[in-house]
Amino acid sequence: MVSTTERYADVAERLAEAERGNAEQIRKSAELILGVIRADALVFTAGAGHSLAAVAETFYRAGGLACVYPVYHPELLPLHGAQHSTKTERRSGLAEEVLAERAPGPDDLLVVFSTSGVNPYPVELAAGARARGASVIAVSSAASVAAAPKRAATTLIEEASIVLDSHVRPGDSSYPPDAPRTAPLSTVINAFLWNLVLAEVVDLGAAQGVDIPLWRSSNVDGGDEANAALLAKYGARVPALR
User: Are 86 and 52 a contacting pair, CB within 8 Å?
Assistant: First the structure.
Protein backbone atom coordinates (compact mmCIF):
# COMPACT_ATOMS: atom_id res chain seq x y z
CA MET A 1 0.00 0.00 0.00
CA VAL A 2 1.27 3.49 -0.87
CA SER A 3 1.16 5.99 1.97
CA THR A 4 -0.60 9.34 1.68
CA THR A 5 2.79 11.08 1.70
CA GLU A 6 4.09 8.88 -1.12
CA ARG A 7 0.91 9.42 -3.13
CA TYR A 8 1.17 13.17 -2.73
CA ALA A 9 4.81 13.06 -3.81
CA ASP A 10 3.86 11.10 -6.94
CA VAL A 11 1.15 13.59 -7.95
CA ALA A 12 3.47 16.51 -7.20
CA GLU A 13 6.10 14.96 -9.46
CA ARG A 14 3.55 14.53 -12.26
CA LEU A 15 2.71 18.22 -12.01
CA ALA A 16 6.37 19.15 -11.96
CA GLU A 17 6.96 16.97 -15.02
CA ALA A 18 4.14 18.74 -16.85
CA GLU A 19 5.61 22.12 -15.97
CA ARG A 20 9.18 21.20 -16.96
CA GLY A 21 8.15 19.52 -20.18
CA ASN A 22 6.02 22.42 -21.35
CA ALA A 23 8.04 25.47 -20.32
CA GLU A 24 8.51 26.77 -23.87
CA GLN A 25 4.99 25.85 -24.94
CA ILE A 26 3.55 27.65 -21.91
CA ARG A 27 5.43 30.81 -22.88
CA LYS A 28 4.25 30.57 -26.49
CA SER A 29 0.67 29.94 -25.37
CA ALA A 30 0.79 33.02 -23.15
CA GLU A 31 2.10 35.09 -26.05
CA LEU A 32 -0.82 33.95 -28.21
CA ILE A 33 -3.30 34.88 -25.49
CA LEU A 34 -1.65 38.25 -25.01
CA GLY A 35 -2.09 38.83 -28.75
CA VAL A 36 -5.78 38.01 -28.41
CA ILE A 37 -6.12 40.55 -25.60
CA ARG A 38 -4.29 43.21 -27.60
CA ALA A 39 -6.66 42.59 -30.52
CA ASP A 40 -9.70 42.73 -28.21
CA ALA A 41 -10.58 39.25 -29.47
CA LEU A 42 -11.63 36.04 -27.71
CA VAL A 43 -10.09 32.82 -26.41
CA PHE A 44 -12.43 29.95 -27.31
CA THR A 45 -12.13 26.87 -25.07
CA ALA A 46 -13.51 23.44 -25.85
CA GLY A 47 -13.59 19.83 -24.77
CA ALA A 48 -15.87 16.82 -24.48
CA GLY A 49 -16.73 14.37 -21.73
CA HIS A 50 -14.66 14.98 -18.62
CA SER A 51 -12.44 17.40 -20.53
CA LEU A 52 -15.36 19.80 -20.14
CA ALA A 53 -14.16 20.16 -16.54
CA ALA A 54 -11.17 22.02 -17.98
CA VAL A 55 -13.48 24.24 -20.01
CA ALA A 56 -15.36 25.11 -16.82
CA GLU A 57 -12.00 25.97 -15.23
CA THR A 58 -11.35 28.54 -17.95
CA PHE A 59 -14.74 30.26 -17.80
CA TYR A 60 -16.17 32.89 -15.46
CA ARG A 61 -14.23 31.99 -12.36
CA ALA A 62 -12.38 34.07 -9.81
CA GLY A 63 -8.90 34.81 -11.15
CA GLY A 64 -9.83 33.55 -14.60
CA LEU A 65 -9.52 35.23 -17.95
CA ALA A 66 -12.61 37.26 -18.85
CA CYS A 67 -12.30 37.11 -22.65
CA VAL A 68 -13.15 33.38 -22.79
CA TYR A 69 -15.87 31.94 -25.00
CA PRO A 70 -16.76 28.38 -23.88
CA VAL A 71 -17.58 26.11 -26.82
CA TYR A 72 -20.27 23.79 -25.58
CA HIS A 73 -22.85 21.31 -26.79
CA PRO A 74 -25.08 19.66 -24.15
CA GLU A 75 -24.84 16.21 -25.73
CA LEU A 76 -21.11 16.17 -24.95
CA LEU A 77 -21.62 16.36 -21.19
CA PRO A 78 -21.88 13.00 -19.37
CA LEU A 79 -24.41 14.48 -16.92
CA HIS A 80 -26.84 14.78 -19.82
CA GLY A 81 -26.38 11.12 -20.77
CA ALA A 82 -23.15 9.26 -20.10
CA GLN A 83 -23.12 6.73 -22.94
CA HIS A 84 -24.62 9.22 -25.35
CA SER A 85 -21.84 11.72 -24.61
CA THR A 86 -19.23 9.16 -25.71
CA LYS A 87 -21.12 8.45 -28.93
CA THR A 88 -21.51 12.18 -29.57
CA GLU A 89 -17.78 12.87 -29.27
CA ARG A 90 -17.19 10.18 -31.88
CA ARG A 91 -19.72 11.62 -34.32
CA SER A 92 -18.13 13.24 -37.33
CA GLY A 93 -19.71 16.55 -38.34
CA LEU A 94 -20.75 17.81 -34.91
CA ALA A 95 -17.79 20.18 -34.69
CA GLU A 96 -18.80 21.93 -37.89
CA GLU A 97 -22.36 22.28 -36.58
CA VAL A 98 -21.01 23.95 -33.45
CA LEU A 99 -18.65 26.19 -35.42
CA ALA A 100 -21.49 27.24 -37.72
CA GLU A 101 -23.13 28.94 -34.73
CA ARG A 102 -20.00 30.85 -33.69
CA ALA A 103 -16.46 30.19 -34.81
CA PRO A 104 -13.13 31.77 -33.89
CA GLY A 105 -11.60 34.07 -36.49
CA PRO A 106 -8.02 35.09 -37.32
CA ASP A 107 -7.65 37.30 -34.22
CA ASP A 108 -9.09 34.65 -31.92
CA LEU A 109 -7.61 31.54 -30.35
CA LEU A 110 -9.06 28.06 -29.74
CA VAL A 111 -7.88 25.93 -26.83
CA VAL A 112 -9.00 22.29 -27.03
CA PHE A 113 -8.70 19.96 -24.05
CA SER A 114 -8.68 16.26 -24.98
CA THR A 115 -6.41 13.71 -23.34
CA SER A 116 -6.77 11.04 -26.03
CA GLY A 117 -7.05 13.59 -28.85
CA VAL A 118 -8.36 11.12 -31.43
CA ASN A 119 -12.15 11.46 -31.51
CA PRO A 120 -13.75 13.37 -34.39
CA TYR A 121 -15.22 16.20 -32.31
CA PRO A 122 -11.99 17.70 -30.87
CA VAL A 123 -9.98 16.91 -34.00
CA GLU A 124 -12.52 18.44 -36.40
CA LEU A 125 -13.04 21.40 -34.09
CA ALA A 126 -9.33 22.21 -34.24
CA ALA A 127 -9.18 21.69 -38.00
CA GLY A 128 -12.23 23.89 -38.51
CA ALA A 129 -10.77 26.69 -36.41
CA ARG A 130 -7.48 26.55 -38.27
CA ALA A 131 -9.33 26.68 -41.60
CA ARG A 132 -10.91 29.93 -40.39
CA GLY A 133 -7.51 31.42 -39.59
CA ALA A 134 -7.44 30.88 -35.82
CA SER A 135 -4.49 29.49 -33.91
CA VAL A 136 -5.12 26.33 -31.87
CA ILE A 137 -3.64 25.20 -28.57
CA ALA A 138 -4.11 21.51 -27.78
CA VAL A 139 -3.94 20.35 -24.17
CA SER A 140 -3.49 16.63 -24.67
CA SER A 141 -1.26 13.67 -23.92
CA ALA A 142 1.13 12.47 -26.59
CA ALA A 143 1.36 9.05 -24.94
CA SER A 144 -2.42 8.70 -24.81
CA VAL A 145 -2.82 9.83 -28.41
CA ALA A 146 -0.25 7.27 -29.56
CA ALA A 147 -2.03 4.45 -27.72
CA ALA A 148 -5.63 5.32 -28.60
CA PRO A 149 -7.50 3.87 -31.59
CA LYS A 150 -7.71 6.49 -34.34
CA ARG A 151 -11.24 7.65 -35.11
CA ALA A 152 -10.52 10.69 -37.29
CA ALA A 153 -8.37 11.51 -40.29
CA THR A 154 -5.78 13.19 -38.06
CA THR A 155 -5.26 13.77 -34.34
CA LEU A 156 -5.69 16.86 -32.19
CA ILE A 157 -1.93 17.12 -31.75
CA GLU A 158 -1.44 17.16 -35.52
CA GLU A 159 -4.02 19.94 -35.93
CA ALA A 160 -2.66 22.20 -33.18
CA SER A 161 -0.38 25.22 -33.47
CA ILE A 162 0.94 24.57 -29.95
CA VAL A 163 0.68 21.40 -27.84
CA LEU A 164 0.69 21.38 -24.06
CA ASP A 165 1.49 17.76 -23.23
CA SER A 166 -0.06 16.60 -19.95
CA HIS A 167 2.03 13.39 -20.02
CA VAL A 168 -1.04 11.53 -18.75
CA ARG A 169 -0.75 7.77 -19.10
CA PRO A 170 -2.99 5.98 -21.60
CA GLY A 171 -6.28 5.31 -19.83
CA ASP A 172 -5.74 8.32 -17.52
CA SER A 173 -5.62 6.30 -14.27
CA SER A 174 -2.52 6.57 -12.09
CA TYR A 175 -2.99 4.14 -9.19
CA PRO A 176 -1.78 1.59 -8.27
CA PRO A 177 1.49 2.42 -10.03
CA ASP A 178 2.16 -1.08 -11.33
CA ALA A 179 -1.35 -1.56 -12.80
CA PRO A 180 -3.21 1.79 -12.80
CA ARG A 181 -6.99 1.59 -12.67
CA THR A 182 -8.10 4.59 -10.59
CA ALA A 183 -7.04 8.11 -9.52
CA PRO A 184 -7.18 9.77 -12.96
CA LEU A 185 -5.00 12.87 -13.22
CA SER A 186 -6.03 14.60 -16.46
CA THR A 187 -8.42 17.07 -14.78
CA VAL A 188 -5.80 18.09 -12.22
CA ILE A 189 -3.01 18.48 -14.76
CA ASN A 190 -5.18 20.27 -17.32
CA ALA A 191 -6.16 22.86 -14.72
CA PHE A 192 -2.55 23.18 -13.60
CA LEU A 193 -1.27 23.77 -17.13
CA TRP A 194 -4.00 26.33 -17.83
CA ASN A 195 -3.15 28.23 -14.67
CA LEU A 196 0.55 28.18 -15.50
CA VAL A 197 -0.37 29.81 -18.81
CA LEU A 198 -2.49 32.43 -17.04
CA ALA A 199 0.35 33.27 -14.66
CA GLU A 200 2.67 33.73 -17.64
CA VAL A 201 0.07 35.94 -19.36
CA VAL A 202 -0.08 38.19 -16.30
CA ASP A 203 3.72 38.45 -16.14
CA LEU A 204 3.99 39.22 -19.86
CA GLY A 205 1.19 41.76 -19.59
CA ALA A 206 2.89 43.52 -16.70
CA ALA A 207 6.19 43.65 -18.60
CA GLN A 208 4.53 45.02 -21.74
CA GLY A 209 2.01 47.35 -20.15
CA VAL A 210 -1.04 45.30 -21.18
CA ASP A 211 -3.98 45.14 -18.76
CA ILE A 212 -5.18 41.54 -18.42
CA PRO A 213 -8.97 41.21 -17.99
CA LEU A 214 -9.44 38.91 -15.01
CA TRP A 215 -12.56 38.05 -13.05
CA ARG A 216 -12.64 38.70 -9.33
CA SER A 217 -14.52 36.71 -6.74
CA SER A 218 -18.04 37.97 -6.19
CA ASN A 219 -17.54 37.21 -2.51
CA VAL A 220 -14.85 39.84 -1.85
CA ASP A 221 -15.30 43.58 -1.48
CA GLY A 222 -15.40 45.28 -4.87
CA GLY A 223 -15.74 42.01 -6.77
CA ASP A 224 -19.19 42.64 -8.18
CA GLU A 225 -18.24 46.14 -9.28
CA ALA A 226 -15.07 44.98 -11.02
CA ASN A 227 -16.89 42.15 -12.75
CA ALA A 228 -19.68 44.45 -13.91
CA ALA A 229 -17.23 46.28 -16.15
CA LEU A 230 -16.06 43.00 -17.68
CA LEU A 231 -19.62 41.82 -18.20
CA ALA A 232 -20.38 45.06 -20.01
CA LYS A 233 -17.33 44.54 -22.22
CA TYR A 234 -17.78 40.86 -23.10
CA GLY A 235 -21.40 40.01 -22.34
CA ALA A 236 -22.71 40.81 -25.81
CA ARG A 237 -20.05 38.64 -27.45
CA VAL A 238 -20.18 35.68 -25.05
CA PRO A 239 -23.78 34.46 -24.70
CA ALA A 240 -22.93 32.18 -21.75
CA LEU A 241 -22.16 35.29 -19.66
CA ARG A 242 -25.79 36.46 -19.81
Answer: no
Domain boundaries, the chain: 2-239
Which residues, 6 or more positions from 169, have their beta carbon under 8 angstroms from its beta carbon? 141, 143, 144, 180
Amino acid at 152: A
Q: Are 59 and 45 in contact (CB under 8 A)?
A: yes
Residue 175 phi, psi dihedral angles, 5° rounding: -140, 140
Residue 113: closest CA among 172, 181, 199: 172
pTM score, two decimals? 0.96
Model confidence pLDDT, tens digit, residues 135-182: 999 999 999 999 999 999 999 999 999 999 999 999 999 999 889 999
Topology (CATH level 3) of domain 2-239: Rossmann fold (3.40.50)
